[in-house]
Design brief:
binds octanoyl-coenzyme A; 268 residues; 2-enoyl-CoA Hydratase, Chain A, domain 1; alpha/beta; 2 domains; four-stranded mixed beta sheet; Lyase 2-enoyl-coa Hydratase, Chain  A, domain 2
């Protein structure tokens, strides 16, 4: 089933439901999808709505326009901040990235063109990144007298290692899709934008067809486990594994295998 896109926060963020996949589109192509207040609000709301929708089993975040996924914070909205109180108010504005990271369902970023600053940080808060050959990544905050402020200094080193992440953050250099694949920033490449749209949706569909509780638990084991020592991480894995033994979906998977048919997973 496909729904007409709903808009969140003006038309800055669109949400569409296609079968079990929730598609979130950053939609300010005239500003290369720069993150303004409407994007912050829209993305936050979209993630919350899709996470609480029982029909949705995977989320895809993509962007409108030819030129890119997102060029980061809307620099035209930057204002002088002259007190700690005002700075704290600005600091509270990364709820949109927290909302992406808080999704309990698998989330994929489909990246084309520019993916800079806060845009890159949105992609880093996703579980899987797939890029088209024209993708250009970078954390240029240092050139603005800032540091990445929406999780980049923490998520990028965890993903690719501290040395490589520091190199990218201290230079602010941009890097292309092949380099992103080599570094492990993305796990899949598509040859062009059309192929990206197709491959990203096919990947989301494939994940949406998996038993949803197992998908949520594998995500939890990896993301929560990353903050634990090995012993505690393995204990978490054991707990989640044991819980899955009690699900109807795991009995259905075994029955379908025996009966040589496709399984039907209900998330129970
Ligand atoms: N904010 C607002 N508008 C933007 C931005 C941006 N970040 N980037 C591009 N635009 C606009 C341009 O102003 C232009 O609009 P207009 O036609 O009305 O003048 C339009 O998009 C097209 O851009 P360009 O004409 O500049 O196109 P080019 O092909 O010449 O260049 C670039 C494209 C290389 C992407 C260039 O626009 C650029 O360098 N943009 C800035 C990228 C950047 O520095 N991003 C990082 C921002 S910092 C950040 O994201 C930190 C977030 C941490 C959270 C903190 C919370 C407060």
């Amino acid at each position: 089933m496909t729904t007409d896109p709903e808009s969140h926060g003006d038309t800055a963020v669109l949400v569409e439901r296609r079968g079990g996949v929730g598609i979130v589109t950053l939609n300010r192509p005239e500003a290369l999808n720069a993150i303004n207040m409407a994007v912050r609000r829209g993305l936050t709301q979209a993630c919350r709505d899709l996470d609480s929708d029982p029909e949705i089993r995977a989320v895809l975040i993509r962007a409108a326009g030819d030129r890119g996924f997102c060029v980061g914070a809307d620099i035209k909205e930057f204002r002088p901040v002259d007190s700690a109180v005002a700075a704290r108010r600005v600091d509270g504005s990364i709820a949109y990235v927290d909302a992406v990271a808080a999704l309990t369902k698998p989330v994929i970023a489909a990246v084309h063109g520019f993916c800079l600053g806060g845009g890159f940080e949105i992609a880093l808060a996703c579980d899987i990144r797939i890029a088209s050959a024209d993708a250009l990544f970078g954390l240029p905050e240092i050139n603005l007298g800032l540091i990445p402020g929406a999780g980049g200094t923490q998520r990028l080193p965890r993903l690719i290692g501290a040395g490589r992440a520091l190199d990218l953050m201290l230079t602010g250099e941009r890097f292309g899709a092949e380099e992103a694949l080599r570094l492990g920033v993305v796990s899949r490449l598509a040859p062009n934008r059309d192929a990206l749209a197709e491959q990203a949706l096919a990947l989301a569909d494939a994940i949406a067809a998996k038993p949803p509780t197992a998908a949520a638990f594998v995500k939890e084991a990896v993301t929560a486990g990353a903050d634990l020592d090995l012993k505690a991480g393995i204990a978490l894995e054991r707990t989640l594994f044991t819980l899955l033994l009690t699900t109807e979906d795991r009995m259905e998977a075994a029955a379908a295998f025996r009966e040589k048919r496709r399984p039907v997973f209900k998330g129970r």
